[in-house]
């Protein structure tokens, strides 16, 4: 049974999407405004469970790619992602029966909802990351051998690239180059697949998790309860299971550059609970690894979320700045992301960080 | 009546193509080796006059794009340009009846001949530049409104981009980004057009001019005559009409960088005929402008060719080096490149050089 999204859900959805974005995935505030607009025009957004997708469905996932730092300066026109899907359909000579997030984190949780509303397509409640990751091949579709191309890439001028690559690493390399030329962020339709493949490879229920996380944080704030306790409790009943506050402190330094099509850098947080120690968070679009000296508190693919200390409102990497009072929350990644073959794609070494993955449950408290 | 190219023609062809390359267009030596190989396999290269192309012909021009400095380090596998044409055909749902040079200078005079031999397609004796230019929109097809996309871009891995751009400047910008990602040079099929459009917009006879120039230089050397006199005489009977030796000197300095997908820089030549003055040649893949102090001796779109002082063998921009003894020859561009609307695309200001175009006939001798 599908769920019809209502306008009152949008704040919860974007709050939860920002949380799963682990700092990246693009600012979901912009996605929420775009969704509000298409819904105000009377368009309907239907979310269908992954289990209800039939073998013969043609799923074409949609997303944005690029640096979050560019997205906040280059707001979408609104119809680029839908154009991307349409151009890929034309190239393939097929019609999509639904779209789906590739990345249920940040703005990319909302992009397929906007596309679905504009084109009258249901949106599958699933994605390929269960969070946000910076590279196109960092998803379960790649890990499970779904061909990543042909893909479509579009921009606000209507320029379109149809890319067919010999593998998903060349795909990332060339598509990133196109995105840089398109102004640092672009709109994509990729991993066209049948319903059976989607059921086999996608992470189920991640849009629902966004809604649940957003609701938990909002309700706790409304009821003057601790939103962090509520968050940890809510995640216990999801594929993420385990979450923990890792650090309470103040942002004392941010180094951030937009380079090679990514926002890269690090943030330093001083503990404000007594020890005065510092925590370094490494960033590539998303928060990747948190270290206090040599102690690793959290590492990809586990989720590393920097939240406002009072409201648990997520702070995206492009919005980090000196003086913010924050709590850092670590969340266990869904098991599919922690399998050995998955860790090769999602683990610290996949980002050039010379560390083994340490599950959040096992890291020093 | 078509001309069937013979292996004995290939040296003349590549010599003449190097001359029309005005320093760029890629090293035609590599193109000649590739052509020799396909002809040794028994394949036939048929060149047809532009006037014999019929209205209903489907012409798909082929070329390489990128920095000549990259091409000499990344030799083609051999079938990339043919793949590019085939991928564009598949995207358009049409079959080419012939191919054509976009650029009858440097390696790009030979690329369509290789494609024609491999795919059994005749090659039209015409091009869109009458020389070589660095940017994709610097051709008569663009000037006369032929849509520059859809275009195909391929590399040696088989990666393919089909680009549809909103205009030819976005096309250049995005395709250049793709080419950089593909290693600095890539293979393209672009400006798909019918025969009627080709007849209206292309520069006729430029492959024949390559052959004639190459033959003139070779025969003069064989007969111990002055190849420069022969060259000037040969060009008199072509659309180029006017040519002149502008400078005799020695290369005393070369500054060359591969940046933004182009080979850019300048070469300085000291006069060796008595005055000791220096001539500066500005380079973007091709030789663009020659200046002695404030005196402009030659400027785009006129052809500026640096040749070995004894043999008149052209020296490409990536091969320029200290100590070379050279003559610099200026050649009038065909009239179609000098029309006011054409100068906006081909003149010095189109390269960011703050100079008016001065026809070679009017520049100080």
TrEMBL record, chains A, B:
Alphabetized Gene3D superfamilies for the sequence: CV3147-like, CV3147-like domain
Domain S-Me-THD-like C-terminal residues, every copy: 168-360
Pfam families xrefs: S-Me-THD_C (PF20906), S-Me-THD_N (PF06032)
Protein name: DUF917 domain-containing protein
Organism listed in the record: Sorangium cellulosum
SUPFAM superfamilies (UniProt xref): CV3147-like
S-Me-THD N-terminal domain mapped to chain residues: 8-164
């Amino acid at each position: 049974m599908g769920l019809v999204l209502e306008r009152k859900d949008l704040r919860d959805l974007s709050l939860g999407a920002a949380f799963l974005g682990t700092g990246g995935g693009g600012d979901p505030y912009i996605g929420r405004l775009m969704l509000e607009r298409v819904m105000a025009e009377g368009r309907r957004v239907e979310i269908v469970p992954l289990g209800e997708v039939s073998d013969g469905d043609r799923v074409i996932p949609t997303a944005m790619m690029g640096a979050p730092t560019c997205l906040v300066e280059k707001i979408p026109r609104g119809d680029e992602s839908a154009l991307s899907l349409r151009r890929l359909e034309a190239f393939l000579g097929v019609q999509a029966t639904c779209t789906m997030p590739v990345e249920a984190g940040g703005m990319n949780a909302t992009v397929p909802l906007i596309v679905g509303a504009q084109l009258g397509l249901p949106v599958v409640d699933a994605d390929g990351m269960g969070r946000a990751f910076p590279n196109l091949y960092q998803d379960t579709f790649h890990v499970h051998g779904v061909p990543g191309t042909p893909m479509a890439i579009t921009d606000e001028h209507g320029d379109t690239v149809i890319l067919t690559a010999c593998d998903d690493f060349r795909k990332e390399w060339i598509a990133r180059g196109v995105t840089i030329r398109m102004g640092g962020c672009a709109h994509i339709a990729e991993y066209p697949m049948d319903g059976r493949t989607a059921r086999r490879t996608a992470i189920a229920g991640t849009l629902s998790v966004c809604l649940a996380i957003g609701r938990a944080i909002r309700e706790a704030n409304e009821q003057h309860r601790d939103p962090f306790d509520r968050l940890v409790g809510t995640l216990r009943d999801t594929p993420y299971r385990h979450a923990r506050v890792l650090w309470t402190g103040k942002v004392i330094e941010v180094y951030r550059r937009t380079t090679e099509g990514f926002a890269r850098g690090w943030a330093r947080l001083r503990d404000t609970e007594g020890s005065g120690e510092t925590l370094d968070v490494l960033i590539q679009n998303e928060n990747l690894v948190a270290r206090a000296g040599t102690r690793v508190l959290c590492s990809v693919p586990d989720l590393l979320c920097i939240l406002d200390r009072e409201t648990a409102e997520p702070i995206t990497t492009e919005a980090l700045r000196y003086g913010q009072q924050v709590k850092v929350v670590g969340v266990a990644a869904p098991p599919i992301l922690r399998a050995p073959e998955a860790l090769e794609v999602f683990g610290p070494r996949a980002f050039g960080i010379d560390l083994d993955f340490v599950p959040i449950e096992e890291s020093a408290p």
